[in-house]
Design brief:
mainly alpha; 95 residues; 2 helices; 0% strand; flat; single chain
């Protein structure tokens, strides 16, 4: 994320929080109902804004529904690990 993306999304999030808070406060009862609709409204505004910023190149990343995957590459076989069929090199002769 570059500085432009951070500043724009921060200001947009603050403005959206104020607007959604004022609307939700007027139309919902206090408590969990107000909290739920605030979260839904804010998510409905900020998620598309984040996707727009990603398309513009201001932020980088990906979104995946489901369990998180480890994006780090797997290390190659070291000398202390047992030989596996995937890492074994055959010379052509069978012993």
């Amino acid at each position: 994320m570059n500085a432009r993306g951070f500043v724009i999304l921060l200001l947009f999030a603050v403005a959206a929080s104020v607007v959604v808070g004022l609307v939700v406060e007027r139309f919902t009862a206090p408590g969990w109902e107000r909290t739920f609709w605030f979260a839904v409204g804010l998510g409905g505004i900020l998620f598309p804004a984040g996707r727009f910023a990603e398309r513009r190149g201001w932020i980088h990343g990906f979104w995946q529904a489901g369990p998180a995957r480890d994006a780090r590459p797997t290390p190659q076989s070291s000398q202390g690990e047992p030989d596996s069929p995937a890492t074994r090199q055959t010379s052509g002769d069978s012993r």
